[in-house]
Task: structure prediction
Amino acid sequence: MIRASTAFFEADASDERKAILKENYAKLPPGTPPAQAVLAQTPMRFFDPRFDAPSLLAEADFKPLLFQHVVGPLTAAWDVRRDRESLRVPILLAQGRYDYTVPYTMWDGIVEMLPDATLHLFERSGHQTFFEEPERFAEVVRQWMAKSGAPARQ
Result:
């Protein structure tokens, strides 16, 4: 995944976005903890490459061991394409156009293989579509739920 996200960033990101990321990384002192290093990745995670991420994550309780377990042993062999016939519920994939950590391009060719999957690309979002485009996100979810037959609350 890291290789794919790095390649997409290099091919797609603007020169300004790349420069801001480089500046952010250059400001990190040696031994910066992962929770702080994530903040340097703002240009990879948000539509606005200069977004004030520290204020958004100020109350976050980052659990590095849990994160390492989820992206490591827990999901290392997971492949949504394997046994896809067992997927019995509709799937909505909400992806931000400017998410360079888990880019929408990673779903190329996969969405079509899944029994009832919908990919929605949010054009003014990065990794947190629900935060960057909350009204649009809610509308997309409502429409998707209505199409899928799930009850939607107002």
In short: Residues 2 and 85 are 28 Å apart (CA to CA). The chain has two domains: 2-71, 84-148. Residues 2-71 form one domain.
